[in-house]
Amino acid sequence: MTSRFPKGMPIRCAALLITAVLMSACEQSRQANATIPQPTSIAKLEHQGSDHELLELQPGALPDMSLSSVRAIQLPAILETTGQIAFDDRRVANIISRVTGRIEDVHVSQWDFVRRGQPILTLYSPELMTAEAEYLQAKAAEPILSGSADQRQFATSMLEAARRKLELLGVDPVQIATIKSAAPSFVMRARISGTVVQNLALRGSAIRPGDVLYSLGTLDDVWVTADIYEDEVSRVRVGQQLEAVTAAYPGEIFRGTIDRISPTVDPNTHSLQVRCRINNPGHKLKPQMLARVRIMVPAGHAIITPLDALVFETDAYFVYVETEPDRFERRRVSVASWSQQGYARITRGLKPGDRVVTGATMQMNELWHEAHGERS
Asked: Residue 159: is its pLDDT beyond 50?
């Protein structure tokens, strides 16, 4: 084996020589590293107390950063939304059976318009036939009854009771006056006028007291059910005037008023419904039609900010607000729909005059998280 050390040099001396060389190399490396500038953070967090924090930036840290002022703008005195035509449920009524029987024939069908007193179905009912016989018997006994006043009063009360029984079984007073004989078949007539919304009367089906035969609704006045965002609720009142236009009659304006305002807000859309009573001349408006609605409301204002000021994370929007030169606060804001391109409407979190970061917003958000990582 050939040694690299000079002959006669002890191994211990060789080890000391190697150690000295290595220590010299390390010292030179430390001196070289000392001359290279170490990177410094361009942002840091300032704790303001009560969990309030500010992000402090070095001047010029984000060359592309710009600031914009939050503005309040005037809203028009008209609130536009969309709605759907529906029956006014106060003008919808059910025609029910008051006797046991069987339907022999039906005279109207769904969506037919019927008038009060019009025949709607023929019913076979022994119960009605018995009531008619009792009425005819009481009617025949009244004029020929002689005797005391009590007896005559009794006969009159019997006739009135028989007439009242027929009325309770659904026989119209006009029909009662025309009864000449007791018959098992009875023609039921509409007690109100309206359009047949629902038809449950089937020929040959058995019916019992309380069974719904028809549902009738009127179209003289209808409802338009429209959606209003929650930030517009303060501008809406019962009784406000409105206009509605439909695709079926684009050149015709239907006028009405707000009649009801929902007491609850849809948590998914953050909107609530208003029901508007609309005049419907000629019954042109039909249930389920769509309409554009313009509600006359007091003039209001909206707070808007450029869209690029917003940062969306998980399920919320945030902005960075300048509190002092080169110091910024991260705020959560609530956003509503807005039609002006390039801007968002803010309903909570900002006020007019606030200055928000609009350029380099994403870089600002990254610095915020990095600063929190340094603190953790």
From this structure: yes
Count of other CB atoms within 10 angstroms of residue 171:
23
Tokens 């009135």, residue? 160
Q: CB 284: neighbour CB atoms within 10 A?
A: 14
At residue 166, what is the residue type? L
Please count the other Cβ atoms lying within 10 Å of the Cβ belonging to residue 228.
23
Q: Give the span between the Cα atoms of 328 and 25, in whole angstroms.
A: 47
Q: Round to whole Å and give the CA distance between 133 and 180.
A: 10
Q: How far apart are CA 198 and CA 195, in angstroms?
A: 9
- Can you tell me the mean pLDDT for 240-248? 94
The residue with tokens 């990095």 is: 370
Q: Largest Cα–Cα distance of the chain, in whole Å? A: 166
Predicted TM-score (pTM) of this structure: 0.58
Per the CB < 8 A criterion, the answer to whether 272 and 264 are in contact is: yes
Q: Distance (Å, rounded) from C-alpha 267 to C-alpha 293? A: 23
Look at 41-50, 52-61, 205-214 and tell me which has the smallest mean pLDDT.
Answer: 41-50
